Amino acid sequence: MPRFLSAKPDSRLLPLPWNVPLDRWPREHLVALPRGISRHVVRFIRVDDEVYAAKELTEPTAFHEYRMLQDLHRLNTPAVEPTAIVTGRADDRGRPLDSVLLTRHLEFSLPYRSLFHSGVRQETVSRLLDAMVVLMARLHLIGFLWRDVSLSNILFRRDAGAFAAYLVDAETAELHPRLSDGQRSHDLDIAIVNLFGEFSDLEAGQLLDESLEPEALVRQIEARYHALWSELTGREEFSSGELYRIENRVRRLNQLGFDVAELDISTAADGSTVQIQPKVVDAGHHSRRLMRLTGLDTEENQARRLLNDLDTYRARTNQGDVPESVVAHEWLTRCFEPVVTAIPPHLTGKRDPAQIFHEVLDYRWYASQRANREVPLTDAVQGYIADVLTALPDEVTGSVAQGDDHARHQLNPYDPSEGYAEDLEAPPHDPWDADALDPDTEVLPAVLDIEALRRRQKGK
Ligand SMILES: Nc1ncnc2c1ncn2[C@@H]1O[C@H](COP(=O)(O)OP(=O)(O)OP(=O)(O)O)[C@@H](O)[C@H]1O
Ligand SMILES: [Mg+2]
165 FRET partner, CA 20 to 30 A, in 23, 82, 240, 354? Predict the structure, then answer.
């Protein structure tokens, strides 16, 4: 008789065939979505409109991982959300089966293998590395020692022109009140070894652009991690005549997407020098502000972009004196919502609403440049749907029936560990790369990379 442990029980999970090993589950319960390679058996299971990731592992490990993921959730750190553990499983002959850890499928997430293919631009890779470094620093700030940092244990979500990274595998992790420098550097060493291996694999499979070297990539990660860590936690000393540097430090942290909850400021006995050191920093500066103003829950860079648009709206409608929360509500109903509701239901699985809004803003900029006039948002969204969105691959679901790319090329669409069928067709489409840099391409790129488009525009 299986036993369920869950903080948020979903009764639809109870009647599933828990007496069958996961790798023999009937397909009617499964959904083929892109996913990373793993040692354990992992399957995506669907109950009505909800998708869960199910991972088979020993009972103590399942409990440990469940607790770790719950802690991360409580501490507001990007990780997959644990739903339940199923223990006490046995097959029809009474032989015991491993426990199952259920996590909610992270919508719109992409495993790294879906993001790399030959020719992926350096900039894209750079953004992935940045997202990874931010995740590591955020984990270390809360005392979380991962001990298994690797590309396959991270999921990426689009975040305006960048990516946001989520932790997906917490089996080996430990949570401490704080981490020593030694512990952090140990975690970083593990990351470097794992990532070097994964980049080398990509290189061997000709999935890494020739201009990218595994060695250089991991060194870049190391350097960026140290730079970010010292910005987030480092002590700074200056003369008492330079007090503006206190505000500068706070602003720089805000720029990086962090809020300072506690700043330690001490002055020398003779008052000649001042020392500052951030004591508590919280990630999500912009997303918190956007949430407060509009109730929208977005990634950090998406929030930055939406807030910029809100500021522009406020200036354009001459509402500088009107309280920001009032303008925000108006912007939400007049700008944001009309764009989101204009998306036909069958296309909503391609991007989350904030990402769509960001891409529509990019599209409008480009369309306005071409038309030499300001294109209204309502026109831009129609153009975006027709020229861009329709052609994009699904990122939320992507079942075999819907003809998902990842699923089609895999020997077993429910299990990527079995590898891909030999396939000489075109490489998977990377919207970030889409012909934006090619001056001869007349068709619109699949996703508009604003910087690339600006360069292209200049070149004309
Ligand atoms: N909640 C989720 N949402 C989306 N994808 C998920 C989720 N849980 C797992 N995955 C996918 O399944 C893959 C394997 O999961 P996971 O890393 O937990 O397995 P594992 O066997 O413990 O891995 P390892 O070999 O590193 O020990 C991940 O790389 C990810 O792509
Ligand atoms: Mg893993």
Answer: 23
Cα angle value 180/181/185 (rounded, 5°)? 120
Domains 3-107 and 110-233 share a fold: no
CATH superfamily of this structure's domain 110-233: Transferase(Phosphotransferase) domain 1 (1.10.510.10)
* In 256-374, alpha helices (H): 285-294, 300-316, 324-331, 337-341, 353-371
HSE, side-chain direction, 13 A CA sphere, residue 415: 14
Closest residue to atom 13 of ligand 1, CA basis: 36
Q: What is the pLDDT of residue 77?
A: 95
What are the residues facing 166 on neighbouring strands?
155
The pair of three-digit structure tokens given for residue 307, joined into one six-digit string:
């807030």
Q: Whose CA is nearest to atom 28 of ligand 1?
A: 36
Q: How far is the CA of 150 from the centre of ligand 2 (A)?
A: 8
pLDDT tens track for 189-216: 999 999 999 999 999 988 888 889 999 9
Question: Is residue 341 packed enough to be buried (19+ CB in 10 Å), middle (13-18) or exposed (0-12)?
Answer: exposed
Whether pLDDT at 217 is above 90: yes
349 or 437, which is more confident: 349
Instruction: Calculate how far, in angstroms, residue 103's C-alpha sits from the geometric centre of ligand 1.
Output: 10
Q: What is the pTM of this model?
A: 0.85
Fold (CATH) for 3-107? Phosphorylase Kinase; domain 1 (3.30.200)
